[in-house]
Amino acid sequence: MVKILIIEDDKFLRELISQKLVKEGYEICEAIDGEEGIKQVRKENPDLILLDLILPGIDGFDVLAQMKRDPVLAKIPVIILSNLGQKEDIEKGINLGADDYLIKAHFTPNEIIEKIKSVLK
Fold first, then answer.
1. Given CB 3.0 to 4.6 Å as the disulfide criterion, which of 31, 44, 100, 112 pairs with 36?
2. Can you list the domains of the chain with their CATH numbers?
3. Each residue's pLDDT tens digit, 62-74
């Protein structure tokens, strides 16, 4: 079973995406901040990570940078899911090694699922 880690501090959005992914047959694990996110990545070894950037404590950019420095974690695909839509933020995320960058306001949960499927192929 494919395991997806959702690192998102917005409870409503996290639960909404989790429910959709579970219905699609994915196994879900969650983290509500960057530090917990890093711990969960190491513990759960997910197949893909949905990563918010604006998080309490360590932000999503730092989570991504830490992951990409670790040869084992660096292989895990990461889709950034953020409200930060500035060109600089998007470039920074992609340059740090994210596989895709989705701006929350521009994508429905179903479109997010489609992106996940395309990255996992």
1. 31
2. 3-120 (3.40.50.2300)
3. 999 999 999 999 9
